[in-house]
UniProtKB/TrEMBL annotation, chain A:
Source superkingdom: Bacteria
Membrane-spanning residues: none
GO molecular function: FAD binding; oxidoreductase activity
The species this protein was found in: Pedobacter hartonius
InterPro entries (alphabetical): CO_DH_flav_C, CO_DH_flav_C_dom_sf, Diverse_Substr_Oxidored, FAD-bd_PCMH, FAD-bd_PCMH-like_sf, FAD-bd_PCMH_sub1, FAD-bd_PCMH_sub2, Mopterin_DH_FAD-bd
Lineage, top ranks: Bacteria, Pseudomonadati, Bacteroidota, Sphingobacteriia, Sphingobacteriales
Keyword set includes Flavoprotein: yes
Protein name stated in the entry: Xanthine dehydrogenase YagS FAD-binding subunit
SUPFAM superfamilies: CO dehydrogenase flavoprotein C-terminal domain-like, FAD-binding/transporter-associated domain-like
TrEMBL record, chain B:
Any one GO molecular-function label of the UniProt entry: 2 iron, 2 sulfur cluster binding
Species the sequence originates in: Pedobacter hartonius
Protein name: Xanthine dehydrogenase YagT iron-sulfur-binding subunit
Cross-referenced Pfam families: Fer2 (PF00111), Fer2_2 (PF01799)
Domain 2Fe-2S ferredoxin-type: 18-94
Oxidoreductase recorded as keyword: yes
Alphabetically ordered keywords of this record: 2Fe-2S, Iron, Iron-sulfur, Metal-binding, Oxidoreductase
Length: 339, 172
């Protein structure tokens, strides 16, 4: 780690003043990713502005129009185990609990979860080219060992994946991200928050320096009756997803009124395809119909030398998870496939 | 090496030591640390509390687990300055005098370690897990203890030991 300075901010205004002193100043919340990146010298900060003392953003509140706002500084664990989230947004609870370890979920915040960097091993290896770490230097993953890399939305510059589980559920739930800065406030639709790599893979998302996530707003509709999160990985727990799927269904008997399907572990952001969800509308909840939707979701998927298996794996995971969503009570700890 | 990764001279960065207080195992300890000192290094190098172990130092193994303000956390990914005023329990503080914590005794009874390096983190993590109260089944315990790796392969015995304490003496 470089020899950075530290300042605690107890007021929002002070947090913005401190972070805007220098373009290399950064906010510190849970620190579970930032401290690690600093240790590897992949990020260098002039000063960390600790926002944990801010009095707001540590809770969960229901808004007057029936939405639910998650404080950005609330931990992932306290969010997943909050009675309102367990009851009304169980898909989000399941996805959060499939990520990281219990200790990390006790530290990591909701705002920080959105801002975690890829775990691409070439991004972490400072001795090799990486367009995300060092723009213009090249991508080592494309000709390298790319088993864990993306199959959708890739570019010739980057095939890294965004590693969050929580964000896969937030994408499926159509959350919005509430942002503040010295200039004011804005809200960003979840689909517009994270970016595809294109020719600017060093930009993970559309947040600007000096902007702070203050909360995440969930629409009223939580799909609490029929939902499932499935995470497939190289070990049963405490590993990033090879493929994950969040499914939320609104059913009338066996007829699908509305379907949401989001994938994790396959792209530079959570992956949703509106045409596939539209295809399921007013159809019956059958394996065949979910398979047709899976084909649409994976349309254009492109494998690399070591990760083409992910295309078939994702298709099967979508079908399996949609069937699991019909019986959410059968779900296993750690978002493993149910029997 | 990429030139962007060459560290700038330290003089560019102008941090100062901070006076902080940590309440560790019921004792208030004052110390001066630079901002980049982790809680783990503060415990081990500044306060000689070497029971907490440095395994990977990157949040992947759980050996550095301590209980901070009633939550199990990773001390390697925490900055000491950001924990000013916190209540911290380390492995040195879980027994009562010469009476071992029930989990310590259960680990001995179940042969739940070989080299012992991961054990302080395992026990602090298990204490945190039991106080969280979310584990109902053995499968839940395995899932909620997955942040603590044991490279000797004592995992089954570790889960046995925790299940004994969780269920008040019974075995599955």
């Amino acid at each position: 780690m470089n020899n950075f300075d530290y300042g605690a901010a107890a007021e929002l205004k002070d947090a913005f003043i401190q972070v805007n002193e220098n373009a290399a100043n950064a906010f510190l919340a849970g620190g579970t990713n930032l401290i690690d990146l600093l240790k590897y010298n992949l990020v260098k900060a002039e000063k960390l502005v600790d926002i944990n003392p801010l009095p707001d953003y540590h809770g969960i509140e229901e808004t007057s129009d029936g939405k639910v706002r998650l404080g950005a500084l609330l931990t992932n664990a306290d969010t997943a185990y909050h009675p309102l989230i367990e009851t009304n947004y169980p898909l989000l609870s399941r996805a959060i609990l499939a990520g990281a370890s219990a200790q990390i979920r006790n530290m990591a915040t909701n705002g920080g979860n959105l801002l975690q960097r890829t775990r691409c091993y070439y991004f972490y290896d400072a001795n090799v080219p990486c367009n995300k770490r060092n723009p213009g230097s090249g991508c080592s993953a494309i000709p390298g060992y790319n088993r864990t890399m993306a199959i959708l939305g890739t570019s010739e510059y980057c095939i890294a994946v965004f590693p969050s589980d929580m964000c896969v559920a937030l994408a499926a739930l159509d959350a919005t991200v509430d942002v503040s800065s010295a200039e004011g406030n804005r809200s960003i639709a979840f689909a517009d928050f994270h970016r595809l790599p294109g020719n600017t893979p060093h930009l993970d998302n559309n947040l600007q320096h000096g902007e702070l996530i203050t909360g995440i707003t969930l629409p009223k509709k939580g799909f609490e009756k029929n939902y499932s999160y499935l995470k497939l990985r190289d070990r049963n727990s405490y590993a990033f997803a090879l493929v994950s799927v969040a499914t939320a269904l609104d059913l009338d008997g066996d007829r699908i009124k509305e379907a949401r399907i989001a994938l994790g572990g396959v792209a530079h952001r959570p992956w949703r395809v509106k045409e596939a969800e539209d295809l399921l509308q007013n159809q019956t909840a059958t394996r065949e119909n979910f398979a047709a939707a899976a084909d649409l979701i994976l349309k254009g998927a492109k494998g690399f030398e070591h990760n083409s298996f992910k295309i078939e794996l994702a298709k099967r995971a979508i079908i399996r998870n949609c069937m699991m969503a019909l019986h959410p009570e059968s779900q296993m700890p750690g978002a493993q496939p149910s029997a | 090496m990429n030139s962007e990764l060459d560290l700038k001279p330290a003089a560019v960065f102008t941090s100062k030591t901070r006076q902080i207080t940590l309440n560790i195992n019921g004792i208030s300890r004052g110390l001066e640390v630079l901002p980049y000192v982790t809680l783990l290094d503060a415990l081990r190098e500044y306060l000689d509390l070497t029971g907490t172990k440095k395994g990977c130092d990157h949040g992947q193994c759980g050996a550095c687990t301590v209980i901070c303000d009633d939550k199990r956390i990773l001390s390697c990914l925490s900055l000491a300055v950001a924990k000013d005023g916190a209540e911290i329990t380390t492995i040195e503080g879980v027994s009562t005098g010469n009476d071992l914590h029930p989990l310590q005794q259960a680990f001995i009874d179940h042969d739940a370690f070989q080299c012992g390096y991961c054990t302080p983190g395992q026990i602090c993590s298990a204490i945190g897990m039991l106080s969280e109260g979310k584990a109902k089944t053995r499968a839940d315990v395995k899932e909620l203890m997955s942040g603590n790796l044991c490279r000797c392969g004592a995992n089954m015995s570790i889960i046995d030991a925790i299940m004994e304490v969780k269920d008040g003496g019974g075995h599955e």
